[in-house]
Design brief:
It contains 11 helices and no strands. Helix 3 packs antiparallel against helix 6 and helix 3 crosses helix 11. By secondary structure, it is mainly alpha-helical. This is DUF4197 domain-containing protein. InterPro entries: DUF4197. It holds the Pfam family DUF4197.
Length: 246
């Protein structure tokens, strides 16, 4: 009788598990991942699971930032005046030229949004190039191990891809003109030291910084929030990582 109850319980859990997979309920999958002993993932499962998670996280971050207001509407990554130009902004705003400063800020963020979508194939290539050792080190590493890996492997490629797009976009959205107007007006103010920051390099770097910031958020989410693991494979792989002390 006890054996029958155990068998019935396993069948019931399995049925619910299949139903959850069909319905795509992350919360239910999470609960079942805890209820069932999913076992130790194979090397192949670890490789597939982590890469699946990384591809989703990087694609999501890239897609989100490439939408209108992806940068401008996100206070954590919004691109403002370069630090060396803060005095320029404050001075012009004090002279009633706040609208011009706002136009500059909007145009800088629009340029970054134009470039963000180009990050996806670069990240996909980096993920495909990962060795099983890379995968294991990331899975069992710190909470930002994947982000650090991407920073080391993709920053140069991102800079090369982003900068020409941003330069073109800065012209298209009027940033170059607005910036010239801002710097021109500031440099004409008596007793001010003339400045001329490299705008395209600045926006390129800030756009990349914002991208890695969003990727780090996605990485932390899937490491710490079981409900964010939307497949049984992810439940198994990251559940295993937790048991290893993560």
């Amino acid at each position: 009788m006890k054996l029958e109850n155990t068998t019935f319980k396993k069948i019931s859990i399995t049925f619910t598990l299949v139903t959850a997979m069909l319905l795509g309920s992350c919360d239910t999958l999470s609960q079942l991942g805890s209820a069932l002993d999913l076992g130790t993932p194979t090397e192949s499962e670890i490789n597939s699971g982590l890469k699946q998670a990384l591809e989703y996280g990087t694609s999501y971050a890239s897609d989100r930032l490439s939408k209108e207001d992806g940068y401008l509407g996100n206070i954590a990554v919004k691109i403002l005046f370069p630090e060396e130009a803060k005095k320029v902004e404050n001075t012009l705003r004090s002279f009633g030229l706040g609208d011009l400063c706002d136009q500059v800020i909007t145009s800088l963020n629009r340029a970054a949004e134009d470039a963000a979508i180009e990050a996806k194939p670069i990240f996909v290539a980096a993920i495909k190039d990962m060795s099983i050792t890379d995968v294991k080190n990331i899975l069992l590493g710190s909470n930002n191990a994947a982000t650090q890996y991407f920073e080391g492997k993709t920053t140069t490629s991102l800079e090369g891809k982003f900068k020409p797009i941003i330069e073109s976009s800065l012209t298209k959205v009027g940033a170059t003109k607005y910036w010239s107007d801002v710097i021109g007006r500031y440099n004409k103010i008596p007793l001010m030291t003339p400045i001329d920051p490299d705008l395209s390099s600045y926006v390129t770097q800030k756009a990349i910084d914002g991208l890695f910031y969003e990727i780090a958020k996605e990485e932390l989410k899937i490491r710490e929030n079981a409900a964010a693991r939307s497949t049984i494979l992810l439940q198994k792989v990251f559940g295993y990582a937790e048991k290893q002390g993560k």
